[in-house]
Write a structure and sequence with these properties.
Layout lengths: L6 E5 L2 E5 L4 E3 L4 E2 L3 E5 L5 E8 L4 E4 L2 E2 L3 H14 L4 E8 L9 H16 L6 H11 L3 H4 L4 E4 L7 E4 L7 E7 L9 H11 L3 H21 L2 H20 L10 H15 L5 E4 L5 E6 L3 H11 L4 E5 L6 E2 L1
Parallel strand pairs: 7-9
Antiparallel strand pairs: 1-6, 1-16, 2-5, 3-4, 5-10, 6-9, 7-8, 10-11, 12-14, 12-15, 13-14
Bound molecules: ligand 2P0.
């Protein structure tokens, strides 16, 4: 009676300090750059899986839809697990979906774990990370908590340190806009790869940048790490700005926060911003500076919604 099972999993977004952008192998979804990331707490995707008669039924944040990326992933799971089951999925995010807050990272990590449990396959986290990568490369990182590395060309992420490694480290996720992005990150990174003259420089320069960041991470040298965090997202966006056609996720509100971070740094406060495939700006800082950062951000952007995160847990079964 395995078919009556109902399983619920939860996973959190993986925010890259050093970015993955571009694929080494499209079919197997292998990343072209090494990414260093932090799995966030506070934000999460919750996914409930059960049996479905003759087709996959997907309800995302209460609305039923046929999401191609999810269906393709379920097709892959059926082959991988050698089953012909269809699934009913109820999946909810407690943060905006497809807005550049890594909902595909938490989403596919939660989904990979859900299918694994539903099919009673008992994959360990390494195998689960490789499976989640098929859905979204960043999801391979979300399987693990704390701090992770996904190497260029790798099949799975590596857990570096757990969530308690750097307890003062915080991320303020500034919600500039909750609209769905106008172009998905998969398409956008492919446009960068195939048409930006800076793509090859991005790939090459990512290697030394990542080494620099890992060194800073282990020394807990926040200024040095912060420099690399900023370089990584700005170099990544350079490949988007110069793609044919150019891709610009930034909004005026994004720039306002970037400039506020610059003002804070000029006042001696170590705060370093990053952005992903969307207009949101995420600020890295250390907890003792939180009060001053909040004050300045709210002074410059009084209506801003934000969420504060620390390093969080990997995928879990509820
Ligand atoms: C990252 N992003 O490292 C980078 C930085 C967005 C900007 O991973 O095609 O949804 O499914 O593997 O993982 C977003 O891209 O792309 C992403 P696919 P994914 O977090």
């Amino acid at each position: 009676m395995g078919k009556m099972i109902n399983i619920t999993t939860q996973a959190s977004p993986s925010l890259a300090l050093i970015k993955y952008w571009g694929k080494q192998n499209k079919k197997q979804n292998l990343p072209a750059t090494t990414s260093l990331a932090m799995t966030l707490d506070t934000l999460h995707t919750t996914t409930e899986i059960s049996f479905s008669q003759n087709k996959d039924v997907i309800r995302l944040n209460g609305i039923e839809k046929q999401d191609d990326k999810i269906i393709q992933f379920l097709d892959f799971c059926r082959k991988y697990f050698k089953t012909d089951h269809y699934y009913t999925l109820f999946t909810e995010n407690n943060f905006p979906t497809k807005a550049g807050i890594a909902s595909s990272a938490s989403g596919f990590a939660a989904l990979a774990a859900a299918v694994n449990a539903f099919e009673n396959k008992g994959l360990d986290n390494k195998a689960l990370s490789a499976l989640a990568r098929r859905g979204s490369a960043s999801a391979s990182r979300s399987v693990f908590g704390g701090f992770t590395l996904l190497k260029a060309g790798a099949r799975e992420a590596i857990p570096l340190e757990n969530k308690d490694y750097w307890p003062e480290l915080r991320v303020m996720v500034c919600l500039v806009s909750a609209k769905e992005k106008f172009i998905g990150s998969r398409e956008a990174m492919e446009a960068s790869r195939t048409s930006s003259p800076y793509y090859s420089v991005w790939i090459k320069s990512s290697r030394s940048l990542c080494k620099h960041a890992i060194d800073a991470f282990y020394k807990k040298d926040f200024e040095k790490l912060g420099w690399a965090i900023r370089q990584s997202y700005l170099r990544m966006f350079s490949t988007m700005f110069t793609a044919h056609n150019p891709i610009i996720y930034w909004e005026p509100g994004s720039l306002q926060i970037i400039q506020t971070a610059e003002t804070l740094r000029k006042n001696g406060i170590a705060v370093f911003e990053t952005m992903d495939a969307g207009p949101q700006v995420k600020l890295f800082y250390l907890e003792p500076d939180e009060k001053q950062i909040k004050k300045m951000i709210l002074q410059e952007c009084p209506d801003l919604n934000f969420m504060i995160c620390s390093a969080g847990k990997g995928v879990r079964y509820l």
